[in-house]
Structures are given as structure tokens and as C-alpha cells.
């Protein structure tokens, strides 16, 4: 247990430090080589890498529509119902985020517009690995669909049989994914960013992945002929603020939800109650016994931090400094307390709001800024699948009225041609009248 | 003149190609060294670099408030009035972009919120060089102020006398900039991203600059302890779509406005009228005679492209493929034509809307995606100075109702602890009832 008030400022920073996340030179070089190969050889390179890493017998990258349908139809009906229910909530919450265009006259005869439009083609990446992640298909596919993206390309590494799970197939079909390709890793990111014979170049790429995927997203986002990406990535994390009123078993279960994601997951409990901290620690030990992923969770919990503060205001300050991806608040008076909290990706309020609610089905997006990025990046939302542009139209009255202002500023910046573009129009209007 | 229909697809791509923008290894290494020095030595490093590049006698980085006031008060009153007028339009248009929080029940007892909050501390960079750029101070300072950022730090390279122009001082004071620092280049970006003794670390850095500034912004944006940045940068560009009805002198003046920005500026005219293209070419030559920056503009115009299309629909397709930063539309029926255009940063409609209107005073932002980024990045707006986060609160009813869905999905993904966090709560509710 860390007693916050006993720490110096430097010790406080250390207590909240995250593991170093710099990707190694080796990862960066490997990824650059993969991207180069995909750029040069297209599909052939992607198939080669996929055979090497995922499925030795793969022949075609595209999962044909009929196979997708058959797989989707084979999904257990209770899981299908759960996916439908989550889909509805995510759809409702992201539809409510639809922005409104702005049109106004800023001065007489000067009309300005801000317009929103869907990105034409988005690429979504779904990692493979031990478990399928249909929830991530929903979190990326639903807002793409709601935004009105014309094309949604999904890449995911195939299993050894050259296929995907029924869960992934069902969720992809449900979201109206345009095409599913059986490839993963840096080669999938390169294919979506640069395009190959069968995979069309996307405007923006979304989705989580391992260090190769993260590095590849970064590299393609720096190329003018590459693609935009959703946000920088880091290990997942939760910070729970709880007072003496909180239920220790609930708090423990939320810390463990985070911990089971991976051995590098970060779990932090901040409380003004020493008794609560002791009870949570005990509950963590008890609950660990029955988890299937107990090894992973136990490793992650070795880095868990239990921070004792003198007051709840101090607890809020700790959270604001850390800027957690997930912030769980289990306190007696949350309504008064919430306005003190800033810098979190998603906030879970009260005893009945476990992190898993937002991970799957409440309707909020589970793609969130990690690694302290909650200070300066947004949680994923509908707007990430759209772009804004402006329009202006001046009438003759508008340019007559605003023209001298424009000319004065252009001359102050020494830009004659800018001034001349107005002067030539004002002259034409004088001749007309 | 390029006859569009005579080109193959590859030739079309070449006709719209932009100059290569990869920063050299040397630039990248130099910038990395500057960032390292600033990280290690703070203010001392920034002052050293500033003495070396900008002002040999500089002793203090901060421009004190009294000097700023004196400079601002010394501004010519007609320029001050022009800045005020531009400020009002920009303020009005960015205020109209204020987003609305979303609150809804996605299912019974499941409340989800999307909230917007201002970034706490933004850094704005204003380049030095031959002319002061008060307009860029407005384009970055006004939305920061409207968003409600608590701290706005401005860095700009000092002149030889260790000061800034009255225009910059006036615009900075008008926007409520918190502090002005006399430094530029990669050292200014490093200082704002990492913090020094006198310059506090900012959450996000905005503003244009030369290749060192651009490279520095990119490097700090990749560091977890760095800062977010506004958007990738490239040379400025305009594409004009005009038909036989357009005024050739107006079109020429808009192409030249772009061309005078720098020798690498891109200017493209697309028209279905060969006569219009010939007239514009002649008008360009005539107008070039009287420009003070004729040398720069002439160099840029050597790379100008005049593209003849068969139809106006084809002209729209050319523009959509190029994705221009500025798109000027001077056609007989713009209302019918506009919906065909996509992929532009800012659109200028009709004969009385020169690009300089948006550069200075219409109210739209002049920080726009260049280099084809208009396909997947937004024009700068109020939302770039804010971030979004979500909140969810489930009631006992909410978790009872949605819990089985969450558990089903967690189990499908093999995440026991996620499921357990719900089960433990449902058990507690059963015991209560």
C-alpha cells in the first residue's frame, strides 16, 4: 500500500508511472521490411506472411460472402442474441452522436458553413490470438455504419483452418462490413493503408493489436500515401476510486477484469479507507482462485497499486494526474464527486457499473485512450469516422463590406496577391455600379 | 495545358502528383538532437538555439506582459480595426461549433453520456520569417479561447531585436494568450511538448512551420511523454474549378494568391473551357508584373497545372481525386454542382469569394489539411481544442437487465473475470431481494 501524502512529487510521479512503451529498433525495422514487401508485391506478400504466421495452407485472402454467411448462421443463438442486444445499445449511443452542420452569416453577405461527411472507406483490424473479439467488431463496425462510410474493410488473422470464428462472422455481417480479409499483423495494416490487388486502400485504419500492429499503424500514418489511424495505443488500464462505502468484492472484480487482459495490464485502487484497501486485497486473492486466466491476472496484479489518500479530493487529484483509460467511481456521493474528475477515457459510476458493462454492451465505445493519452485524446466515437470541412460564399455585398479588412490584413502580412484578389473584385463591382 | 480525357489512369495520377515530402534523414537527426538537448538542459538549451538562429542577444524567453501591452498599443489603428473585424467573424463561426453533450438511456437503467471538455493547456506556434502572421494567431487563439482552454502558450521566433511585431502582440492579447515566449523552430516545439523551467508542458501543439518544425511536431507526437499535434503538414495548395462563365482575372488572382505563399505552392485550374484556360494564363502573366513577391509566385506558377476536361462532372472527379486544401468553384450553377464535390479542406463558392477571404476574415479556419489529407483529416475547428469522454451508470435494474448479455459476450471471448464482475453483482442483488 502506498501512502500518498508521504510521497515527494517525484515519488508520486514514480508511483503512477507506466511501463516503458518504446517499441524496439528491431520491431520497427521488421515492420518497415514487411510494409516494403507488401508495397512491392501486394497480395503475394500478404499471403506469404499469413502462411508463415497464421495459416500454412491459405490460398485466398478474401473470405467469400457465402462462407461468411454460413459461419454467421452457425453461431449459437444465445450468443447471437447477446451480440444483437449489444449492437442495439452501441448503435443507439453512437447514433445520438450524429453532429449537426453549421450554417451562419458571420457578417452581412458572408455565409460560412461547417459540414460533416463520413470517411469513404475505413479499415478495421481485429486481432486474432487465443479468443475471438466480436465486441471489437461492434465497437468499430457500428460507428462506421452509423457515420455512413461507404466501404468497411475488416482484416483479421485466420485460424489454422483458414477461417474465422462464427462470433466474428456474425458481428461483421451484423455491422454491414463490406469485405473480410484473412490476414493480420503488420502485413494487414500495410495492405489496408497502401492497397493491394484484392484489398483496396482505406482512408483510415482502426483497431487494437500487438506491438507489430501498433508500430505498423504508426509507420503508415506518417506516410503521405498511407492512412490516418484512430489513436496511439498502450497497455489497457483501470483506476478505481472507492471509499469506505464501496463493496470490496465488486472493486476486486473490476481490478481483476482489467488484470486478465494481459500481464502488462495496469490496475490501481485509490481510497481514503485503509480498511477498504485491506478488504479488496483479500477479495482479489479469493476471486483469483476461480479464474481461468488466473496466471495472467496474477502477473498483472503483482504490478497493481493500492494508494491510500487522506481525503477523497486527494483521490481525485491522483486520478487526474494518472489520466486512466477506465475510471471506476464507487463512492457514497458520486454526483458531488464526479465534477472533480477529469482526464479519463470512460467513467463507470456507482456499484452497478462494472467495467465489463462498457467493454461489451452499455453502448459506450471500448476503444479508449490509454497510457495517459486521456489528457489530450478523445474516446473513440462517431466523429472519428467522419471529417469536417468548411464552405464560404460571399455575395457582392459581402466582399464590398469585408474586402477592406481582408486587404488590410494581407498587406500587413506582405501578401500582395492576396490583397489583389480582393481589389480586382472591388474594382469590377465599381465598374458595374 | 493537360487534356484530361487523353490521359491513362497512371498519367492522371502523375498529373495530380504532389512534390515528394519525405523529410531527409539529416533533418530528422538534427531535430532529434535539438529535442534531446531541450529535454536535458531546458531553458538554457532553448536560449542557446534562439541566440544561434534568431537573436544573438536574447537573455529571457518570456515576453513580459508590459512589453506585450506596449507593443500591442503601438499597432496602427486601421490594422487593429481589421484584426478586430476578423476576430469577430472567426469568433462567431467557431462559437457556433460548440458541441452538445449527449445523455441517453440505451436500455432501461443504463445511462450513457458523451461529454466534451476543453483541453487544459494548448501550445500555439507562429512562424517568424519575412512577414508576421497575426492571422494565424487568430486562427489558433480564437478557437482555444472559445473552447475554454485554461492556458494558451504562444511561441514565436524573436526578431533580431529580441521582440515581436505589434501585429502579433495585438492579436495575441486580443485572443487572451496566457504567455508569449520568444523562441521558434524545433526547440520551441520541444519546449512546449516536454516543458522547461519557464515553459510549461502543453497537451497539444498547433501551428504551421518549416520542415524542422513539422518534423519536430511529428517526433514529439510519437512520444508518450510528448504532446498531441493538430495535423500533418505539407505545402499549401489551391484547385480552382471554373467554367466559361468565370471571370479570368478573378481566377488568375486566386491562383496567384496561392503561388505567392512559397515556391513549392501548388496551383491547379480545372475547366471545361479551353478559352477560359487561355484567358486565365494571360491574366496570370499580366497580374504577375505588379506583385512584390513576383519571383516566388513565378517559380510556383511554373508548376501550375491547367487541366481541360470534357465536362464539369469530369472536373469534379479531378478535384475529388486531388483532394485540395483550398477548392475554389466559379461556375454558372454552383448550387447543383457543389454536392458533386468531396475531399476538400475549405470550399470557396462563386465570383465574390476569393481564397484570401477565408485566409483572413470570413470566419472559417485557415488551418487546413494539405497534401491530399483532405480525404481523411478535418479542417481545423473548435473540436480540435476539446476532447470527448464517456460516462456510464447502471442502476440495479440496469445490471439485472443487461447483465446476462454482458456475461454471454465475456464468456464468448474467454474473459472470466469480466463475466464474474457481473455475476458477483447479480448475486448481491438476489441476496437483497
TrEMBL record, chains A, B:
GO terms for molecular function: histidinol dehydrogenase activity; NAD binding; zinc ion binding. Substrate binds at residues 236, 258, 261, 326, 359, 413, 418. Binds 1 zinc ion per subunit. One of its GO terms (biological process) is L-histidine biosynthetic process. It holds the Pfam family Histidinol_dh. Pathway: Amino-acid biosynthesis; L-histidine biosynthesis; L-histidine from 5-phospho-alpha-D-ribose 1-diphosphate: step 9/9. The active site is at 325 (proton acceptor), 326 (proton acceptor). Its cofactor is Zn(2+). It is an enzyme of class 1 (oxidoreductase). Residues 1-28 are annotated as: Disordered. Zn(2+) binds at residues 258, 261, 359, 418. It catalyses: L-histidinol + 2 NAD(+) + H2O = L-histidine + 2 NADH + 3 H(+). Keywords: Amino-acid biosynthesis, Histidine biosynthesis, Metal-binding, NAD, Oxidoreductase, Zinc. One of its GO terms (cellular component) is cytosol. It comes from the Bacteria. NAD(+) binds at residues 125, 187, 210. Its EC number is 1.1.1.23. NCBIfam families: hisD. Belongs to the histidinol dehydrogenase family. This is Histidinol dehydrogenase. It comes from Alteromonas halophila. The lineage of its organism: Bacteria, Pseudomonadati, Pseudomonadota, Gammaproteobacteria, Alteromonadales.
